[in-house]
Write a structure and sequence with these properties.
The structure is a homodimer of 423-residue chains. Chain A is mainly α. Helix content of chain A is 65%, strand content 5%. Chain A is built from 15 helices and eight strands. In chain A, the strands form three sheets. A three-stranded antiparallel sheet of chain A has the order 1-2-3. Chain B: It catalyses: a di-trans,poly-cis-dolichyl phosphate + UDP-N-acetyl-alpha-D-glucosamine = an N-acetyl-alpha-D-glucosaminyl-diphospho-di-trans,poly-cis-dolichol + UMP. Chain B: This is UDP-N-acetylglucosamine--dolichyl-phosphate N-acetylglucosaminephosphotransferase. Chain B: Belongs to the glycosyltransferase 4 family. Chain B: Keywords: Endoplasmic reticulum, Glycosyltransferase, Magnesium, Membrane, Metal-binding, Transferase, Transmembrane, Transmembrane helix.
Chain lengths: 423, 423
């Protein structure tokens, strides 16, 4: 569900796109005429500090992490930092090429203001995806492990994520029908399921043991089905909890920070080397995700100079599903995704067709006041606006990101309190 | 080096194409007005028979291949067969979407005739790539091997090929500069190089042992560099030996047939199980390549109703490099590629800039006679025309494909005669 009006696809949106594009030249007169607004680096600096400081503190000072494990993690962090700067540099370049191919949208939440006339380049998620893949591929050379199982999982993860980026970009370019969009990610998860060599058991919560009759339940194939559904869910849920400048990347980096903190805590608190390897694996893929996403957020934060496209949202969702599955913390991941789950549940009536579903389910923008008002559509964005009153786009986005962070914090609290009682 | 005039790029010296695309920025006409010409299934049947019969005969009757291996290969062949029909079905669907996004070209070799006015959908290689990946991913479930080394290589192969398809499609959409096109495939080969756990030695030809002083030379890292360069070469060489309807796919399927025959011959004549596995690995990826390519050829054969795009040529080149490297027969693969090497050598002066290099280095088409005449450009297509006189496009393509087949046959003869003497 693109939140931006696409100009050259046949859609049933309220305002007919053709009228606008015919008045504009289909090609930018010269690539050098187009200048992207400068990246909002100070905002990114603040966000990065908020998200990464706790993680880095825990990694380097609080826990006594094995040197052998700490070194690859820090090397990975270094590579991710390089990835940050490369992405920062490439986005303006890619934006020119993307505009030249008429892949742009108009910011619906600014319609009626001068900003609503600006052609915003779309699908810049492709830059993030490619830089992420290159960082992840290069990192393989720095991880001095002979463990062939690790190599299988890592390559399967790369294959899955790469296939997802490919499908996302094809969708951005060709505007694939939504049924296909639902089906294809299932194929992208297959290398992952094949490589998953871990246990397929779940631990029954203590209070329920007497009802179920078992302490540990082996789900076998059903567990693999669960993993596939998790991947399809993650891949699509970020896509529908979108529509505000910076919301898609914002939710991703908040969850990624939570993932990193969780990984480090599990590494610090555990002596089982297999668990440590699994969580380190998750760190190796989440750090590059975080770094490259922050670079794009520098351009996508309010007011957005680029749009991320389905390419980004499916890539981010898939990467987080991959680390959750291969790092063996998928239940924790689901709790981090609480706002997305909420949004999905709210959206169900419209997605299922029971309630009429318009092309865009965005709040209503009032150019006079600059505030957004919630409509009757079933999304977290609209429901939040209806509960808490009208807000500006930037302030609403920040509110929703804080909500995301609170959901993640709640998960940590839950794990702490249920630790002895639950498992 | 696209052979087809792209309509909406700014740097073309060709007649202004903007007016044409502005009329077609939005397709308000219903999708079913556009009909793709029916696939040329008769031609494909003939080509398939010519190419596959020897391979199938050798596999099933001539050699005594062990049952377990044979059934895996036949399962893979079955899946590839399904892939053929899926690709055949998907191409007309994808062609509509691709046209809607203005990704089309005009057939330069038909300029001046009515056929030269038709908008031919571009980049249909994406369909081949996606179906290939799905077939390859699904096949993993049917190969009942516990060998983790095999899984590492297979997943690394999938990751490399998938990344290459992604880069090829991004290039088709955004028209990436050629320096970038050369650099990026090197990254796509990295998972492959990491997974390559084989020997890095080469066997010195017997006549040279006296000069070199060794029988077996361990190249170590240089061997990996050679593999990286091989992949970059294969990826780009098909792209520049192109420009006639059906030539890109044609050369691929001829080479693929040669690869399959070579694999089966090596399996049949060897008792080393590692050797068997390596060549079987190559078969598992080459059969789907062959099947999906033949489906695209049904539409791309003269006169082309779709164009393949860089997506196809880089995908095909990468897949063949992958099987050559992981199947340990890269030197043989290079001899199969003799026409491409010849074309590359002929092209070097223009690629390097010593001789002026025009946008297209195609032969000159005469609408009156319908024949192509060779120009002074340094390509195999032009040199062939200058040696053997003007030809129609279809006949020239068939000539070049026969030349490709002869080069492959020459390789087999060479191996046979040098068998005892060479190694």
């Amino acid at each position: 569900m693109a939140a931006r009006r696409r100009t050259s696809s046949v859609t049933n949106s309220e305002n007919p796109p053709p009228a606008i594009t015919e008045n504009r030249p289909t090609t930018v007169s010269s690539p050098e005429d187009f200048r992207l607004a400068p990246p909002k680096l100070s905002v990114i600096f603040v966000i990065s500090s908020l998200l990464c400081s706790l993680y880095l503190y825990l990694l380097c000072f609080h826990y006594n992490v094995d040197d052998e494990l700490k070194r690859p993690i820090l090397i990975n962090a270094g590579l991710s930092l390089v990835g940050f700067f490369v992405t920062l540099k490439l986005i303006p370049v890619a934006a020119r090429y993307v505009l030249r191919r008429n892949m742009f949208g108009f910011d619906i939440n600014k319609r009626g203001t001068p900003q609503g006339e600006v052609k915003v380049p779309e699908s810049l998620g492709i830059v993030v995806g490619i830089v992420f893949l290159i960082v992840a591929i290069i990192f393989q050379f720095f991880n001095f492990t002979e463990d062939s199982l690790w190599l299988v999982e890592y390559n399967a993860a790369l294959a899955s994520i790469c296939f997802m980026i490919l499908l996302g970009f094809v969708d951005d370019v060709l505007d694939v029908p939504w049924r296909v969009k639902l089906l294809l990610p299932s194929f992208a998860t297959l290398p992952l399921l094949m490589a998953y060599a871990g246990h397929t058991t779940i631990v029954i919560p203590k209070p329920l043991v007497s009802y179920v009759g078992l302490e540990i339940l082996d789900l076998g194939r059903i567990y693999k089905l669960y993993m596939a559904l998790l991947a399809v869910f993650c891949t699509n849920s970020i896509n529908i909890h979108a529509g505000l400048n910076g919301l898609e990347i914002g939710q991703t980096v908040v969850i990624a920070a939570a993932i990193l903190i969780h990984n480090v805590m599990q590494i610090g608190a555990s002596v089982d080397s297999e668990i440590r390897q699994a969580h380190a694996f998750s760190i190796y893929l989440t750090q590059p995700l975080m770094a490259t996403s922050l670079a794009m957020l520098a351009f996508n934060w309010y007011p957005s100079a680029v749009f991320v496209g389905d390419t980004y949202t499916v890539f981010a969702g898939m990467t987080m599903a991959v680390v959750g599955i291969l790092g063996h913390f998928s239940e924790t991941l689901l709790i981090f995704f609480l706002p997305q789950v909420l949004n999905f549940l709210l959206s169900l009536p419209q997605l299922a067709g029971i309630v009429k579903c318009p092309r865009h389910r965005l709040p209503k923008f009032d150019p006079a006041t600059g505030l957004l008002t919630g409509t009757k559509d079933g999304t977290l964005v609209n429901v939040y606006l209806r509960i808490f009153g009208r807000k500006s786009e930037k302030s609403l986005c920040i509110h929703l990101l804080v909500f995301q962070a609170l959901a993640c914090a709640f998960c940590f609290l839950l794990r702490h309190f249920l630790a002895g009682w639950y498992k």
